[in-house]
From TrEMBL:
SUPFAM superfamilies: YhbC-like, N-terminal domain (SSF75420). HAMAP family: RimP (MF_01077). Belongs to the RimP family. It is found in: Cytoplasm. The keyword Heme does not apply. PANTHER family: RIBOSOME MATURATION FACTOR RIMP (PTHR33867:SF1). It comes from Saccharopolyspora rosea. This is Ribosome maturation factor RimP.
Length: 185
């Protein structure tokens, strides 16, 4: 029996795997099926607002394994299942990634070529408030070319966290003015 092409396998299995992952209370961040010798490697990347621990990885592995066994005809042979969480260097590409990175330090490359190192504040479906160079600033996701969390070995400055908290509550007029300036560019 010949095995179906990789893209077709991924496309057929992703909805059922996503459902199993969601049923366990997690978000499916990435899903891929690759040929690895005579077997297939099924890679599932999960995340949640509360993070992902080893117990959760085991729970999701069991749930995904069950649905893959129910759809073994799609895989057309043996497979190795790898369930993992995203690494710290995962790009921030969706609003939920930004919400989960609240108060973290990030490196942002804007589409106009400007690089920022900023602390993440409130994020919504269109953009995020950041503290960069001591200034609150609104950044629209459409203006972000690439963004990743920076690894920090110290606690963030308390005053930065307070400024971001106040901005979230609408206390900072300076941040609101800055937002208007940034979006009009």
């Amino acid at each position: 029996m010949s095995s179906p092409p990789r893209g077709a396998v991924t496309a057929k299995l992703e909805p059922v795997v996503a459902e199993a992952v969601a049923g366990a209370g997690f978000d499916l961040e990435d899903f891929d099926v690759q040929q690895a010798g005579r077997r297939r490697l099924v890679k599932v990347v999960i995340d949640s607002d509360a993070g992902v621990g080893l117990d959760e990885i085991s729970e999701v592995s069991r749930a995904v394994s069950e649905v893959l066994d129910e759809h073994e005809h799609v895989l057309a042979g043996s497979y190795t299942l790898e369930v993992t969480s995203p690494g710290v260097d995962r790009p921030l590409t969706r609003p939920r990634h930004w919400r989960r990175a609240r108060f973290r330090l990030v490196r942002i490359r804007l589409v106009d070529g400007v690089d920022l190192v900023a602390r993440v504040g409130d994020a919504d479906d269109d953009g995020v408030t950041v503290l960069a160079g001591g200034e609150l600033r609104r950044v629209a996701y459409r203006d972000v070319e690439r963004a990743v969390v920076e690894v920090e070995f110290q606690q963030p400055p308390a005053e930065d966290l307070v400024r971001l908290e106040r901005a979230a509550g609408g206390v900072s007029q300076q941040g609101d003015d800055r937002e208007d300036t940034e979006e009009s560019r």
